[in-house]
Amino acid sequence: MELKDKRIIISGCAKGMGEATLNSYVKAGAHVIGMDIDSELGQTVAENANKNDEGKSSFLPVDIGNPQSVSEAFAKASNLLGGLDVLAHPAAIHSLGDPSLISPEDWDRMFTINVRGTMLTNQAAFHQLKKSGGGSIINFGSISGLRPEPSSAAYSASKGAVHSWTRTAAGAWGKDKVRVNAILPAMATPMYKQANASMSEEAATASYWMNHRSIALGEKYGDPETDLGPVMVFFASDASRFITGQLIPVDGGQASIR
Ligand SMILES: NC(=O)c1ccc[n+]([C@@H]2O[C@H](COP(=O)([O-])OP(=O)(O)OC[C@H]3O[C@@H](n4cnc5c(N)ncnc54)[C@H](O)[C@@H]3O)[C@@H](O)[C@H]2O)c1
Questions:
Q1: Which end of the chain is least crowded, N or C, by CB within 10 Å?
Q2: pLDDT mean over 42-61
Q3: Nearest CA to 66 among 107, 121, 110, 19?
């Protein structure tokens, strides 16, 4: 569970699980570069983490759906870090949308950020991790990619694609000692709060029965710092060295993966 001097990139560090992951890694002694499309917030998160903790962090802007932006940011980050050991990749977007109404533009935006963004960041990290003799990539899937989700069709399809990609990349890159897993979280973050705020009363009731009632550990979404942070440290550390290609729910029992 030691992260002392591990060289880590975290996407989506400006808020939610990216922010919590950055804080946990700096506390565990890692040297971290946080990235986000929101430069102002991302910079603040990286600066604040430096104040009290063991490791160190800095910030670089990125748009994960844009190939040039990803290759430039990852090259710069690996240069600054002197190599790479871990990529944690929570950055993504969510939107509600009925399958019969979704527009090609909304579909493409979702797939550009959530699916192409996962492929681009994972690929950029892989080349650096291979040079380091191996490492860990931690993607973010969702229960939405495992079950029918009539209210968020494009998001659900994009997360199903992230699950498939994670298994394929793990199969392909294991020989280079690069592990690829996906966390399937249920955490109270800005994304979760925004999704809840935009629901009708009827949808909110359905969501209670679908999402909250099934959380065995307390019927409510977790806290990113205390419920997710330690798991992210485990998957970045050598303690998880024999785990790859897995979809790991960190959700209080909301989903059961078979
Ligand atoms: N919150 C939950 O309970 C939940 C449930 C299932 C899956 N997830 C997944 O977990 C991950 C983290 O979710 P969260 O709730 O912390 O989200 P969040 O919305 O709170 O944070 C996402 C971060 O990604 C950044 N981002 C968005 N588009 C970007 C882009 N193009 N380039 C770079 N950065 C970009 C945002 O600026 C933001 O800082 C996501 O992949 C999400 O789909 C979340």
A1: C
A2: 92
A3: 121
113 lines ligand 1 (CB under 6 A): yes
pTM for the complete prediction? Answer: 0.97
Q: Domain ranges in the chain?
A: 7-250
- pLDDT score of 110: 98
In eight-state DSSP terms, residue 7 is E
pLDDT at 135 over 90: yes
63 lines ligand 1 (CB under 6 A): yes
Q: Which CATH superfamily is domain 7-250 in?
A: NAD(P)-binding Rossmann-like Domain (3.40.50.720)
192 is catalytic: no
For the chain, what percentages of helix, strand and coil (3-state, to nearest 5) are there?
A: 50, 15, 30
Query: Which tokens is 12 given?
Result: 């989506």
Q: Can you point out the beta strands (E) in the chain?
A: 7-11, 31-36, 56-61, 86-89, 135-140, 178-185, 247-250
| pLDDT of 15 | 97
**Average pLDDT value over all residues in the chain:** 95
Tell me the mean pLDDT in the region 132-143.
Answer: 98
